[in-house]
Design brief:
Length: 471
């Protein structure tokens, strides 16, 4: 049955409609939608149960395959974590909570649709569906002017990049006479053979570089993270990047190492790593630091995309999942520290090992994972990326990635240093974290350690998806 192929999307659409009904009806009892995390985790279970679905829909523009199902599972899990993290945020008016979670759910639905799109116009429409909800989500921070500024920047820069993508799409259509990825794979992609198509694809990719916060389309990232609420930043910093990676994987599969576009991806990846890590060294606001960190991690993903192999595509998919888990764990700690929803700086971490030793440990695990230290998932993810790119014409990019990993050690471990070796500026009581919340954070850190020690089952799913794209 065709409906089975659309099961995850139908479930997410049902959640959007339920939240829309709650928003229209109003929240007379002035309560948080405490049922939402349970429903979101059930959606992750639905996505897991539908991993084996395969088929084509909508005139072959929508493909349900191993790659799409892997990313739908990743989106469902990330959405469930983000919702659980945001359910009791202090700076969101209760009257707007149904609207807030409806917008978040709608964005996740757009990302799920994006995972299965294999035709460029359909990809563009799904990307915009996922983006429009974020335009309204970002300014919801109790009338904070910084949130309004962040939303304006995100909208204006997003509109500019969207125009570039549409302009590039017209060049691809004119140069290759098709918008289906399967047919584009059989077309020439060298400047000598098809210069218009090469320019068009480069411009079209700009929209996904923007979502991925890759240099030079990163300029919105630190400001938006800093301006919006901590819980919203946790979502914006993670799930939209999954949508960008899945499309970049599909489009990179039509390219070969040595082509001009592939070399552009490699150069932008190296620039993104270097700029992101160097800029992060000077940051004291944790959200700005993680913003520049995401710029660097966008560059790491390019290692798998330029390899031209199925294993490289699998490594990029696996690392994108690991990245959202690492980031969401770090943001979970930030949201627990910021009792009143304020931004957290490095100085605020002082004495954390005394006030909340559990939070300090979870922060340390997420920081070690973001660096790529064993035995965390960040280490295995980077190892898979580096090994997939080596000896495929871009060894220099692997060397740049290793050097940048060394640079990143300073600012990631600086968070741990502040948490464990410095004292709080003022005497403060212990940070009270509910037992269930602490258990959830401990579970996230345990997953990061488990995927570092036993990455096989999850990585095998990514390998099956990657080998389907490229043998």
């Amino acid at each position: 049955m065709k409906a089975v192929l659309f099961l995850s999307e139908f479930y997410q659409l049902g959640l959007v409609l339920a939240l829309l009904a709650a928003s229209v009806a109003g929240q007379e009892e002035d309560r948080d939608p405490v049922w939402l995390p349970f429903v979101a985790w059930l959606g992750a279970a639905v996505a897991f149960g539908n991993l084996g679905a395969r088929g084509m829909m909508f005139w072959d523009a929508y493909k349900v395959d191993a790659l799409s199902q892997f990313f739908k599972l990743a989106i469902s899990v990330g959405f469930a974590i983000a919702v659980t993290n945001a359910i009791r945020q202090p700076l969101l008016e209760r009257a707007k909570r149904a609207d807030y979670f409806m917008l978040m759910s709608f964005s996740a639905l757009g990302l799920m649709l994006l995972s299965s799109c294999v035709e460029l116009i359909t990809i563009y429409v799904a990307l915009e569906l996922a983006s429009y909800a974020l335009y309204a989500l970002i300014p919801l921070r109790a009338q904070d002017k910084r949130a309004a500024e962040a939303a304006i920047k995100y909208i204006l820069f997003g509109a500019m990049v969207t125009a570039l993508s549409l302009y590039g799409l017209s060049y691809i259509i004119n140069g290759q006479h098709t918008t289906y990825i399967a047919e584009l794979a059989n077309k020439p992609w060298s400047v000598a053979a098809s210069p218009m198509a090469v320019i068009g694809l480069t411009l079209f990719l700009a929209g996904f570089f923007y979502k991925l916060a890759m240099f030079p389309f990163h300029f919105w990232c630190p400001d938006v993270y800093q301006g919006t609420s901590n819980e919203t930043a946790a979502y914006v910093a993670t799930l939209p990047k999954l949508g960008a990676v899945v499309i970049l994987v599909r489009l990179a599969s039509i390219l070969k190492p040595g082509l001009e576009i592939t070399t552009i991806l490699a150069v932008l990846g190296a620039a993104s790593m270097t700029f992101g890590n160097l800029a992060a060294l000077a940051q004291t606001d944790l959200k700005r630091l993680l913003g520049y960190s995401s710029v660097a991690h966008a560059g790491y993903v390019m290692l798998g995309l330029v390899s031209g192999t199925g294993i490289g595509m699998a490594a990029a998919a696996f690392y994108s999942l690991i990245y959202i888990l690492m980031n969401l764990t770090c943001f979970w700690v930030i949201c627990r520290i910021a009792k009143n929803g304020e931004n957290v700086s490095l100085a605020d971490l002082g004495g954390l090992y005394k006030k909340a030793p559990g939070l300090a440990f979870i922060l340390a695990v997420s920081a070690f994972a973001l660096v790529g230290l064993p035995p965390t998932a960040g280490f295995t993810g980077k190892l898979f990326l580096l090994s997939s790119a080596w000896d495929h014409g871009y060894n220099w990019l692997v060397i740049v990635a290793v050097l940048n990993t060394a640079i990143s050690i300073y600012y990631y471990l600086n968070m741990v240093r502040h948490a464990y070796t410095t004292e709080a500026a003022t005497e403060e009581p212990a940070t009270a974290v509910p037992a269930y919340s602490m258990a959830f954070g401990a579970g996230l850190s345990a997953v990061l350690l488990l995927l570092g020690i036993l990455p096989g089952p999850v990585y095998d799913l990514a390998v099956r998806a990657g080998l389907q794209i490229l043998p």
